[in-house]
Amino acid sequence: MKYQIVGKNITVTEAISNALTKKLSKMDKYFKNDDEVVCRAVVRTYKKNEAKVEITIFSTDTTFRAEVKSDDLYKAFDLAIDKLLGQMRKLKSQLKKRYDRAGVGKAIAFEAIKDEEEQEETAKPVRTKVIHLKPITIEEAALQMEAIGHDFYLYLDTDDEKISVVYKREDGGYGLLQADNKTDIK
Predict the structure, then answer these.
(1) Nearest CA to 154 among 133, 179, 125, 126?
(2) Does 179 have pLDDT greater than 60?
(3) Stated pTM of the model
C-alpha cells in the first residue's frame, strides 16, 4: 500500500507518520495487489484540543473512507481504522449475499476479513417519497434546502439539465453531486 499523509493545522512529525503507517500497514493483508492501493490520510487539529482523521483507501475497484473526530489523535487513528474494517466486513457480507465475487470485489482479499455478524439484514427503505424535479439553479436549490431544514436537496439543474444534489458540508460550505449516466456501449 502506498501512503500519503497530509497535515492540516498540524505538522506531521515522524512519530505521527510512523504510528499511522504502522497501524495502516496491518490492513495490507486485505488487498490482493497492494501495490495498486493508495491510502490517503488527512490529519487535522482544532483549537479545542480536538483532532480529526480522514482516511481514504483507493483500490482498483473500491474506495473506503472513514472520518473520525476525537480528543486524542492516536485514538482517532484507531477509531478510523476500526471504521474502515467495519466497512470491509459489511462489503464482504453484501457481496457474498448479492453479487458474483469476480465482479465488484476482485481487488479485495475477502478470505482475510472476518465475517460480519449475521444480525445485520439487507438495508430496506423505511419511507419512499416521490418528487417532481423542477429545473432550478444551484443557488435556488440551496435556498430551498435551507428553507425546509434538510442537509441536502435533490433538483434538476437548469444550466446542464443534470439531476443534482446540493448538500451541506461539515466545514460549513456546500457540496454538489451530479448524475452522469452516459455510457459508451458499442
Answers:
(1) 133
(2) yes
(3) 0.56
